[in-house]
Amino acid sequence: MSVSHGRRKVEEVNSAVAAHEASIARVATWKNTVQSNRRARLEATKVKKELAEQNRIQQDNEWHLILEDEKKHFLENAQQTQLFQTPEVRALHEKLNTIRVNEERSLQTQLHQMRSEYQKQQDNLYHENMLSQLQIAQIQEQEKIRMKAEEARINALLQQVQIKEKHSKVDKEHTVCSLLILPNSMLWLRMQ
Q: Rounded mean pLDDT of the chain?
């Protein structure tokens, strides 16, 4: 019995251990236990660290790209500066600058000529306008003088006609009076 008793004890212990492990396995899937909360926190911390590491790696990669790009631009600028410092290129740039200055001067000269021509045209138009206005004023003044002369001539003719009418009226009255007076005077002479 001792062997069977020992076996039973071992089996009881094994079954207790198996039950305990089954219980732990069952509890492990539960979400509202202390261990489950601890595992969730650890998992969240692990995910957070992994994301932070990925972000850091991505920023490092971007920073390296920026540094490489700046280095590339710096080298290009240095090469371009060296190229521009060569005597041939400097002479070429001096010639280009001289050509640009000459072109600008010719453009300024053309602009000055165009402005002076425009100003001359404006002056000519102004003078023509003033001359035409002066001619119009002279013609109007001559027309006024002619109208006054015509009016004066008409007035003189009217006065002459009025004077003639007055003289003829006076002559008629004088004739009438003399005719009236003449017979009376004849009577008077006859009476004497």
A: 86
